[in-house]
Write a structure and sequence with these properties.
heterodimer, A: seven-stranded mixed beta sheet, four-stranded antiparallel beta sheet, B: mainly beta, about 45% strand
């Protein structure tokens, strides 16, 4: 069974631009979560989608948004990029149960110049 | 969200057992104790979880104190591949989709 895939793996943008990151969950998984990892703040929850609906949202500004498609693939978008958005963005998927193991992808490393 | 406290770092030798502690004094009765680890340049991966009883799987063992205010992840024979940051996370059924990561414990394994 293929794991969680994220594209692109690396990305360089400049301040003010916007970016879209993609995540394909494990086949059969209907829930996708997004996390931001920085050296200063560690791993922080961004949002979670289930069956194309956002179920949970972390404490991030509205510049961070996401969506999920009918095939469970998910995208997250960051508009008006700031230097502080430089981070590793991780996607995780799990099957059905709320306490199920979450499977993480390798992440997308975003650098904002 | 209930909080966990872990040592910032620990060091051990290859092929020796490693005991990684976690304090969670404000744990509620419905909180499960989960452990994830993050190897260098990878996303986190699930290790083990439990509620009240000790648990074993192919990767590790989880020992939970009787009052559930602390737990210990046990790696029975550490290898160099076990060098990672280990996170102890509390999850309740409601809102469990969100993993709340602390700073974790950075485990170094010496050859």
């Amino acid at each position: 069974k293929a794991g969680v895939t994220q594209t692109p793996r690396y990305l360089i943008k400049t301040r003010g631009q916007q970016v879209t990151l993609s995540c394909s969950p494990i086949s059969g998984h209907r829930s996708v979560s997004w996390y931001q990892q920085t050296p200063g703040q560690g791993l922080q929850f961004l949002f979670e989608y289930f069956s194309e609906t956002q179920r949970n949202k972390g404490n991030f500004p509205g510049r961070f948004s996401g969506r999920q498609f009918s095939n469970s693939r998910s995208e997250m978008n960051v508009s008006t990029l700031e230097l502080g958005d430089s981070a590793l963005y991780l996607c995780a998927s799990f099957a059905l149960g709320n306490l199920d193991e979450q499977f993480f992808g390798p992440g997308t490393r975003l650098t904002v110049l | 969200d209930a909080k966990t406290t872990q040592p910032n770092s620990m060091e051990s030798n290859e092929e020796e057992p490693v005991h990684l502690p976690c304090n969670h004094s404000t744990i509620s009765g419905t909180d499960y104790i989960h452990w994830y680890r993050q190897l260098p340049s990878q996303g986190p991966e699930y290790v083990i979880h439990g509620l009240t009883s000790n648990v074993n799987n192919r990767m590790a063992s989880l020992a939970i104190a009787e009052d559930r205010k602390s737990s210990t992840l046990i790696l029975h024979r550490a290898t160099l591949r076990d060098a990672a940051v280990y996170y102890c996370i509390l999850r309740s059924f409601q809102g469990a989709q969100k993993l709340v990561f602390g700073q974790g414990t950075r485990l170094t394994i010496n050859p």
